[in-house]
Amino acid sequence: MQVTAKNRSFTQLIEFEIEPGQQPALVSALTVQTERLAQRYAGFVSASVQASDDGRRVLGFLQWQSREAGEAAFQSFETGEQDFWQLIRTHQARTVTFGSFQVLSSIARSHDDGLHCQLVG
Q1: Contacts for 85 with CB less than 8 Å, ≥ 6 apart
Q2: CB under 8 Å to 53, separation ≥6 — which residues?
Q3: How far apart are alpha carbons 35 and 47 in whole angstroms?
Q4: Per residue in 41-63, pLDDT tens?
Q5: Could you read off the pLDDT of 4-44 as tens digits, one per residue?
Q6: What burial class does residue 91 get, using C-beta atoms within 10 Å of its C-beta: 0-12 exposed, 13-18 middle, 19+ buried?
Q7: Contact criterion met (CB below 8 Å) for 105 and 119
């Protein structure tokens, strides 16, 4: 069965460039926001908050079942209890880079230790 573009899963990447002293607090704040999105919005698949070794970057990775689900959640992230723009100001982000991607293939290790690749058509 071929999956249409509308039905492909959707990934949002947000990279923050910050001063090293801001990294732990930003990681904590993004983790809280991500947990809220996961609990409140349908279509959540997975997420991670990653910190660079040099302390100058934080990467937020969110994967959704569809573009619509991701965009709906992100709209709330922009205007929620702690809005996204306030988060940027509080943690003094020098730059914030947004990326949106449709998943075309993925590979994962299963519980039986096998590798499984899925191509989305």
Answers
A1: 78
A2: none
A3: 9
A4: 899 999 999 999 999 999 999 99
A5: 455 578 999 999 999 999 999 999 999 998 898 888 889 99
A6: buried
A7: yes
Domain 9-103 annotated CATH 3.30.70.100: yes
Tell the residue number behind the tokens 């949106």, with chain if given.
100
Q: Which two tokens stand for residue 6?
A: 């509308």
pLDDT at 5: 53
Nearest to 105 by CA among 12, 11, 14: 11
- Whether residue 80 has pLDDT greater than 70: no
Q: Say if residue 6 is exposed, middle or buried (CB neighbours under 10 Å; 0-12, 13-18, 19+).
A: exposed
Domain boundaries, the chain: 9-103
The identity of residue 99, as a single letter, is: G
